[in-house]
């Protein structure tokens, strides 16, 4: 059973296993993985027969590793911190120093895991989590394979979890997939896209398919266009080195934004089973019309932030002044695309995607703009126009669903105004602290790959943006920085919709 089909209180603990974290001294381990395990432990979802084996270069024993993790857990779980839960979890944490690019060290890893099997009852089930740079994925899996640590029997399983980025273009992603397949079967590979772990992203599917009134309207006959926004107010912080290589497009669009698009646009799957969901998402990706080089010039927009003032008044530096960033960097911190699909449901309906750093608000949402109603009823009245309805799925923050519609303004004359209906998750389901990794880790321990990405989904994502990357690389930007921090991106992003007679939804005034 997966948390996608159940809820925290009804789900049973995961299957016995040892979770090996490569890169245990890194940021991801402290900020996401250990806090996610804390939440799972709190919810009674970790098995008794469980061990975490942190692996890294630093020389430490189990106690030093436990102390290191304890130092920061409070910061990362906030008010959810509970000493008794931490004490339960910390007893399962172990550490081993090794050079992960050194094949000979894997013999020691095998011995240590087999000791843990005996001490902890982890039954030979190993989850290898790659919290290391992608350049090491192939080497580590090669060494694991050579040490016999990836061989499954009918009594135990071996799985690896890989974090994005999965390559930096179609070719490198395909090469990475081939390299992984040299040592692993596809069903042993769990590729994380943390957007799939977000409850509100999973809820898109439930909202669409569990409510009978939605589906009849969810098509080109009733929907004018869709806007997908992942706006971040943060800058690149200390990730300049990574971001210089990635940029907004690579960092967000072929992965996170296409996850949102896939769920919004897919046909009803036959079940929540991983194959069924993936097949439908892949059909959406296949239906997206490729952008030619000319299309890129008119349907893709890039931007980079200069210095500016954030809405809270904070003055922030330009991207080019961030640590690890070239003073003349051509890397984009904002990207917007107009995509269309060639299928029966969506032909002619534009999907506008935008994402960026240092924008005026931190907001991830999907806005569905319905077609305008005919105005014949209102002839000979004061009403000149009725506003089209908008349905907004708010992913974060303030997760919820918002609908705007027209209503009569009370009074003797006919006047129409836009009113809003708002549903907030927190009001109904409370605020359960989570990192977004809980469901994903739990599902992997149980062999449920529904919320993980298959090799072909990754490659299709890169295919969709490949022409944009090619054109942008061939034509370095001349106008960077072209938006001030704290604004909504370059003017050209507005023109992308403006040229079609449309407007981005005013996110700064979320009720419009
Ligand atoms: C990551 C990107 O994958 O997603 C980051 O590398 C980005 O640049 C982050 O900030 C956004 O995730 P979330 O969950 O904060 O929307």
What does the model show?
This protein is an alpha/beta fold and 512 residues long. It has 2 domains: 5-163, NAD(P)-binding Rossmann-like Domain (Rossmann fold, 3-Layer(aba) Sandwich), CATH 3.40.50; 196-371 and 430-440 and 456-498, Dihydrodipicolinate Reductase, domain 2, CATH 3.30.360.10. The chain contains 14 helices and 18 strands. It has helices at 27-42, 62-77, 83-90, 105-120, 137-146, 170-181, 199-209, 240-265, 274-287, 293-299, 425-429, 438-445, 455-474, 491-498, and strands at residues 17-22, 50-56, 93-97, 126-130, 158-162, 189-191, 223-231, 300-303, 305-306, 308-309, 315-316, 334-339, 351-356, 363-370, 390-396, 400-408, 416-424, 483-484. Strands 8-12-13-7-14-15-16-17 form an 8-stranded mixed sheet, with helices on both faces. Strands 3-2-1-4-5-6 form a 6-stranded parallel sheet. A two-stranded parallel ribbon has the order 9-18. Helix 5 (137-146) links the parallel strand 4 and strand 5 (158-162). The longest helix is centred in the middle third of the chain and has 26 residues, at 240-265. The radius of gyration is 24 Å and the shape is globular. 42% of the residues are buried. The protein binds 6-O-phosphono-beta-D-glucopyranose. Residues 164, 194, 232, 251, 364 line the site of 6-O-phosphono-beta-D-glucopyranose (BG6).
């Amino acid at each position: 059973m997966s948390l996608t089909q159940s809820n925290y209180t009804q789900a049973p603990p995961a299957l016995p296993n040892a979770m090996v974290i490569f890169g245990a001294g890194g940021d991801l381990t402290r900020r996401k993985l250990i806090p996610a395990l804390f939440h799972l432990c709190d919810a009674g979802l970790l098995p008794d027969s469980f061990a975490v084996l942190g692996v890294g270069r630093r020389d430490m024993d189990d106690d030093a590793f436990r102390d290191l993790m304890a130092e920061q857990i409070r910061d990362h779980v906030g008010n959810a911190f509970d000493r008794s839960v931490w004490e339960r979890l910390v007893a399962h944490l172990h550490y081993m120093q090794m050079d992960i690019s050194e094949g000979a060290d894997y013999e020691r890893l095998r011995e240590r895991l087999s000791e843990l099997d005996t001490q902890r009852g982890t039954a030979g089930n190993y989850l290898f989590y790659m919290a290391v740079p992608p350049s090491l994925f192939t080497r580590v899996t090669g060494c694991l394979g050579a040490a016999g640590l990836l061989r499954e029997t009918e009594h135990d399983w071996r799985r690896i979890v890989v974090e994005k980025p999965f390559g930096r273009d179609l070719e490198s992603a395909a090469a990475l997939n081939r390299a992984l397949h040299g040592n692993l079967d596809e069903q042993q590979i769990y590729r994380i896209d943390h957007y799939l772990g977000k409850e509100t992203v999973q809820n898109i599917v439930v909202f669409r398919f569990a409510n009978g009134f939605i589906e009849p309207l969810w098509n080109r006959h009733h929907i004018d266009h869709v806007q997908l926004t992942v706006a971040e107010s943060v800058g690149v912080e200390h990730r300049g080195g990574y971001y210089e290589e990635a940029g907004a497009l690579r960092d967000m669009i072929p992965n996170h934004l296409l996850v949102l698009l896939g769920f919004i646009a897919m046909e009803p799957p036959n079940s929540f089973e991983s194959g069924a969901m993936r097949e439908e998402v892949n059909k959406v990706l296949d239906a997206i019309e490729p952008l030619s080089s000319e299309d890129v010039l008119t349907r893709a927009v890039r931007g980079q932030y200069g210095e500016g003032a954030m809405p809270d008044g904070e003055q922030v530096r330009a991207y080019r002044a961030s640590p690890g960033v070239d003073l003349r960097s051509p890397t984009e911190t904002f990207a917007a695309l107009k995509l269309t699909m060639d299928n029966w449901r969506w032909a002619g309906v534009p999907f506008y995607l935008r994402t960026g750093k240092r924008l005026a608000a931190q907001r991830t949402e999907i806005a569905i703009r319905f077609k305008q109603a005919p105005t014949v009823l209102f002839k000979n009245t004061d009403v000149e126009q009725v506003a089209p309805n908008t349905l907004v799925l708010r992913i974060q923050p303030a997760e919820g669903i918002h609908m705007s519609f027209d209503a009569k303004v009370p009074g003797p004359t006919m006047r129409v105004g836009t009113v809003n209906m708002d549903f907030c998750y927190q009001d109904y389901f409370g605020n359960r602290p989570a990192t977004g990794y809980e469901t994903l880790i739990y599902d992997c321990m149980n062999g449920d790959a529904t919320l993980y990405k298959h090799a072909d989904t990754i490659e299709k994502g890169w295919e969709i943006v490949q022409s944009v990357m090619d054109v942008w690389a061939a034509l370095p930007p001349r106008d960077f920085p072209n938006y001030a921090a704290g604004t909504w991106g370059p003017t050209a992003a507005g023109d992308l919709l403006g040229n079609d007679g449309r407007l981005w939804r005013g996110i700064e005034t979320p009720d419009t």
